[in-house]
Design a protein that fits this description.
The chain has 267 residues and is α/β, with parallel strands linked by helices. The chain has one domain: Nucleoside phosphorylase domain (Rossmann fold). The protein contains seven helices and twelve strands.
Length: 267
């Protein structure tokens, strides 16, 4: 009987995997627990599955079958969780969301950036002809683009949906968030420096900076899965970033989750 239990567990696991390989699935990822928890609360018939130590929750939002997971902070965690989700659940698309620091001087904490493209701001190499490049390399040795483009269909849907979402007003003001389409840059650094913000703006024309988006985008690009990154600003990535994040994080997370849910419900 002891030997039979692992076999039954394996059969159950394979059957569950096959169930999600044959259904259209949307993958929803977030870096922090708060953003992911807000999405999970809206799931119908939620079920949790642990894959190689990472928890994934499946369920429905509207008519869409979804799988939700928290990636954890940083590019390695984000890439690993994304790869596990793609391999196990075979989602048709990936939507990644969370908070970020604003680098566009026209944006304030609470505003939202829908990423038209993402890039690694902390990656650079020197080519054989001694020219610097920000292009990453895939496992096959092929060179990836310096900027990963969002899926055009998902981008258009997000832009349209954002115009109809009733966002919470930004704390200490009465105005709703400004939503723009722009450039999000990623690095394994929490940016809290006005000088660094200026550098990112000059080098990438960046509108926001965070620690996971481009890693998710790179995995999706290499595995040919449509993706979209959405970031709600919790701070301006300047010297006061940590204090601002504490003040604006909860509202930013709720507004980000509202937009994600509205996008998925409209699929």
């Amino acid at each position: 009987m002891k030997n039979l239990f692992p076999v039954l567990l394996l059969i159950s696991h394979l059957a569950f995997s096959q169930q999600y390989k044959t259904r259209p699935v949307t993958g929803l990822l977030g870096a922090f627990g708060a953003e992911v928890a807000l999405v999970k609360q809206s799931l119908k018939n939620p079920k949790t599955v642990v894959v190689d130590g990472v928890s994934f929750t499946t369920g429905r939002i509207g008519k869409q079958q979804v799988v939700v997971a928290e990636t954890g902070i940083g590019k390695v965690n984000a890439a690993m969780t994304t790869a596990l989700m793609l391999n196990h659940f075979r989602p048709e698309r990936i939507l990644f969301t969370g908070i970020a620091g604003g680098t566009n001087p026209d944006l304030q904490p609470g505003d939202i950036v829908i990423a038209r493209q993402t890039a690694h701001h902390d990656y650079q190499s020197i080519t054989m002809d001694r020219k610097p490049t920000r292009q990453t390399y895939s496992l096959s040795g092929k060179v990836n683009p310096a900027f990963f483009l969002a899926d055009s269909v998902m981008l258009s849907r997000a832009q349209t949906t954002a115009r109809s979402v009733a966002f919470e007003p930004i704390p200490l003001t009465t105005r709703p968030p400004t939503v723009i389409t722009g450039i999000v840059v990623t690095g394994d650094q929490f940016i809290s420096s006005a000088e660094k913000v200026t550098q990112l703006r000059q080098a990438f024309n960046a509108d926001a900076t965070e620690m996971e988006g481009a890693a998710v985008a790179q995995v999706c690009y290499q595995m040919q899965v449509p993706h979209l990154v959405i970031r709600s600003l919790s701070d301006r990535a300047d010297d006061n970033a940590r204090n601002d994040m504490l003040s604006f994080y909860q509202t930013a997370a709720r507004n980000s989750a509202k937009l994600v849910l509205a996008i998925v419900e409209g699929l």
